[in-house]
Amino acid sequence: ELELSIKNEPAEMQENKTTISILEKNLRDAKEELKAIKKRKIVEIAKLEAKVDNNPEVQEQIGVIEETYSELEDETMLRICGLQTQINLTVGKRNDIVRINRLARTVIDVFNDIIDKPKLDRTDLQLIIDQIIVYEDHIDVKLKADVDAILHAEKANEKANEKETTVNFNEGSKVILNSNGRISSLYTMNTPHSTTTKVRLKTRNQPERLFTVNIISSGDPLEIFTDREGEIILKKYSPIGELSAFARQYADALAQSCGHIVSITDRDHHIAVSGASRRELMEQPLSPALEQLMDQRETRCCTLKDKAFIPISTQENEHFTAQVICPIITEGDAVGAVIITSKNENAQMGEVEQKLAAAAAGFLGRQLEQ
To answer: Which helix (H) or strand (E) holds 365?
Structure first.
C-alpha cells in the first residue's frame, strides 16, 4: 500500500491542483454573488427611499429589505470563509503528501531489510517487539502497536462480503534460535488467524522443553477514571473526542460551503453534526457497515440507488439519498470519518464533495498527530 501511494504521488498532486482550481472558481463565484447582492440591496432601497415621504409602510418595507439582504450577505460570507478554509487545507495537503511519502520510503526500506534477513539481530527485535514474557510453559511476545497494525490488516471477503483478518507476511510461524538455545528472531508469516507456534528450547544443564509462543496483539486504548467511592471506570478512548469542539466548528463551516449535511464521527458515534439532521444523528452509534468501511480505509461516493450505499447510523428510519464518506487516518489508524450526506431526492455528490471531505479528513488527522 505504501509503495502504491508513492507511485501515485504525481496523480495525487495533479488531483490536488484540480481541487484547488475548483475551489478557487467557487470562491470567485461566491464573491461575485456577494457583490450582486449588495448592488441589488442598494438599488431596491434607493427606489423605496425616493417614495418614502414619511410613509410608514414604505419605511417598514425598507427595514424588511435591509434585514433580508443582511441575512443573504451573512450567509454568503460564511460560504466564502468556508471555501477559503478548504483552499488553505488543500494547499497544506500537497505538502503533506510529499512529506508522508518520503517517510513511507523509509518505512518500506526498513521493513524490506528486516524481511530479507536470514536472521534478526538485537536491533531488529527492539524495533518490532515491545515485550517478551517467559512463563513456566509458554512465552508471550508482544509486538509494538504500529508493527502489529502493519502485520495484521482487515480486508473484505468479496464473495461473502464479510470482513476477515489476514496476515501480510504469511508463510507459517517461524522461530530462529541461536547457539545458546535463546530466541534470536521470531516472526509470524503466512498463517491467517494463527498467532501461536511451538518451539523446543534447551538450556545449559536443563532438559529440552517444548514452549508455546503466543504473539499478542495490541488492543483498543482505554481511559481509566475513578469515582468518589474508589470504583475504577474504563472508558474507550476517542482521539476525535479530544477535538469535539473544533470538530463542531469545522462541520459548521463545511456544511456552509457545500450546502449539505455534514457529520464527523469517531470509531463509535457521530460527535459533530451540522445541518438539518443534527438532532437525528448527534451521538448516534455508527452502523456496522460504516465501521467496516472505515476499517478498510475506503472513501465512498454514491446515491441511494447504488448498491454501495450504506446506512451511517443504527437508526432504522434514515432517509438520506446521497453520501460521501472519507475516513480520518492518523498514524496509520482509522479513528473516525467525515460524512457529507443529503436528504434531497435530487442531490448528487461529485468531485467537489469528495475533495471537501478528503481535505477535512486530512486536516483532522494532522491535528490529532500534533
So the answer is: helix 351-369
Strand partners, 325: 300, 339
C-alpha dihedral (299, 301, 304, 305), degrees to nearest 10 = -110
Strands 222-226 and 333-342: unpaired
- Is-contact 283 261, C-beta < 8 A? no
DSSP letters for 172-231? EEEEEE-TTS-EEEEEEES-TT--EEEEEE--TTS--EEEEEEEEPP---EEEEE-TT--
User: What is the C-alpha end-to-end distance of the chain, expressed in Å?
Assistant: 24
For the four alpha carbons of 229, 234, 236 and 237, in that order, the dihedral sign comes to positive
C-alpha grid cell, residue 244: 469535539
**Are β-strands 322-330 and 183-189 bridged in parallel, bridged antiparallel, or unpaired?**
unpaired
Cβ atoms of residues 282 and 253 within 8 Å: no
State the pTM of this model. Answer: 0.44
Shortest CA distance to 256 belongs to which of 356, 343, 363? 356
Give the three-state DSSP class for 1. Answer: coil
As a whole number of angstroms, the distance between CA 344 and CA 336 comes to 25
For 55-93, how does the pLDDT look when each residue is reduced to its tens digit (9 = 90+)? Answer: 777 778 878 888 888 888 888 888 888 888 888 888 887
